[in-house]
Amino acid sequence: MIGHLRGKITAKHPPSLVVDVGGVGYELEAPMSTFYGLPGIGAEVSLVTHLVVREDAHVLFGFGTERERSLFRELIKVSGVGPRIALGILSGATVDEFHRCVESQDVAALTRIPGIGRKTAERLIVEMRDRLKALGGSAFAPNLGGVQAASSPQAEAFGALVALGYKPAEVTRLLQGVDPSVTTTEEMIRHALRAAAK
Questions:
Q1: Of residues 135, 116, 141, the one with CA closest to residue 196
Q2: Which of 38, 57, 55, 58 has its CA nearest to residue 47?
Q3: 170-174: long-range contacts, CB 8 A cutoff, minimum separation 24
Q4: How far apart are CA 119 and CA 122, in angstroms?
Q5: Confidence band of 49 (pLDDT split at 50, 70, 90)
Q6: Which helix H or strand E contains 75, and what residues bound it?
């Protein structure tokens, strides 16, 4: 099991990134809450990880904080919630925001996350209520660094949102609503996710 990685970021294509550790490039998938805090390409990063082993692939997930990884691990124990949906939940809400949704039994807020229907949202609220009490501490604090994009930030944001489960037409609408002064991929995604949650 790979518990954490420390190395240089060599590629960022939300929700995927590559971290070079001693000459070996590890491909990871990370929630947008982690992406918001990543430094630029070439900078060193330290991430806690979770390895999901499937019949057809081994997928490594990276997280900026232990709280994010702990929530991810609890989410994938819920019936009907796989790693993709768990990644979507962490991309659409911070650990604290998810905690508040469960405590206030806010089904509507959870169903705005791609892949979460009413039944899954209700199941999450019931099953996660007790589990969340074990997740303490403060939310992930972003520390944005420079981003070197191989393609335009808007194209990367589009690809990331589609990968998170949003339909292309919906992504186009969400990105059109982003303020033109926003120029980084991470900020575009953050604004689009906020708009989707309204």
A1: 116
A2: 38
A3: 170/196
A4: 5
A5: very high
A6: helix 66-75
Q: What are 26's two structure tokens?
A: 């590890």
β-strand partners of 6 = 46
- pLDDT class for 133, splitting at 50, 70, 90? low
Query: 135 near 97, Cβ under 8 Å?
Result: no
Domains belonging to the chain, first-starting first, are 4-63 (2.40.50.140), 67-134 (1.10.150.20), 153-197 (1.10.8.10)
Nearest alpha carbon to residue 19 among 33, 83, 34, 52: 34
Q: How far from 68 is each of 56, 96, 175, CA to CA, in Å?
A: 25, 10, 26
Quick check: 70 and 97 in contact, CB under 8 A? no
* Chain length of the chain: 198
